[in-house]
Amino acid sequence: MFGASIGRGAGRIINAMVRGLAYGRINPNLLTVIGVAINVGCGLLFGFGYFFWAGVILIVANLFDMLDGQVARLSGRVTRFGGFLDSSLDRLSDMVVFVGLMIFYARDTEFHSTLNVFLAGAALMGSVMVSYTSARAESLIPKCDVGFLRRPERVVLLIIGALVTHPGSQNPFLNRMPAVLWILAVGSYWTFAHRMYHTWREVNKADAALHAQATSETSRTASNAGPERRTEPELVR
User: Fold this and answer.
1) Which of 12, 43, 116, 124 could covalently link to 96 via disulfide, CB atoms 3.0 to 4.6 Å apart?
2) Helix, strand, coil shares of the chain as percentages rounded to 5?
3) Regarding predicted confidence, which is higher, 201 or 219?
4) Helix 80-106 to helix 51-74 angle, to the nearest 10 degrees?
């Protein structure tokens, strides 16, 4: 009950923001660019070790990511280029956050960890491959959004990992970013493999349907042709 009330309240706030931006004639592409600029700032905060504030900024950045598409639809300004721009800058937003984490763990500080640098790099590559696989698959099949670690889930995990990072605390529930990186690294490749398998299965299914249709049409054409008739030449008397 309480969670549902929070969800409805947040939905009303977001809807009000969307209506205000749409009626204010704000270009949705501008919101997309602002969102990625905020993500760049988030990556810098991660690189300097300000994890908590990086998590807060990440929430704000993804608020813009939610708003741009809704504003475009409400204002009737949905364009193919807008979709392309949003998808492309989402990849940049993902990568800059992971690069910030790699820089933080690679620095010569007490938090230096080659393993965490590797995990952040592996998670970066995995997240890019998940998105790329989906984009390429959807040129062959209608939809490919399967897998449990899509972009929203990755962002939520990063936000949680950032907000619970408080260096020096002995609380066992805090400073869990390394665990988050393990989940992101392993889960991204699992999702990548799932999408590869899903695409292979759907493409084979479509090919089989086309083959069956072609075979059916060939059989129907042959049956409509009927038995072959021969006409004998008339003899001249």
Assistant:
1) 43
2) 75, 0, 25
3) 201
4) 180
CA–CA gap between residue 196 and residue 175 (Å, rounded): 34
Supply the CATH number for residue 186's domain. Answer: 1.20.120.1760
What's the pLDDT band for 212 if we cut at 50, 70, 90? confident
Chain-wide mean pLDDT for the chain? 85
Say how many domains are in the chain: 1
Residue 233, domain member (yes or no): no
Sign of torsion, CA 119 100 53 59?
negative
Rounded Cα distance between 209 and 207, Å, is: 5
- The answer to whether 33 and 39 are in contact (CB under 8 A) is no
C-alpha distances in Å from residue 151, one per residue of 72, 91, 130, 145: 20, 10, 9, 10
Model confidence band, residue 9 (pLDDT cutoffs 50, 70, 90): low
Burial class (CB in 10 A: 0-12, 13-18, 19+), 174: middle
CB 198 within 8 A of CB 139: no
Distance of CA 93 to the CA centre of its chain: 11
Residue 5 within any structural domain of the chain: no
Q: CB of 25 within 8 A of CB of 58?
A: no
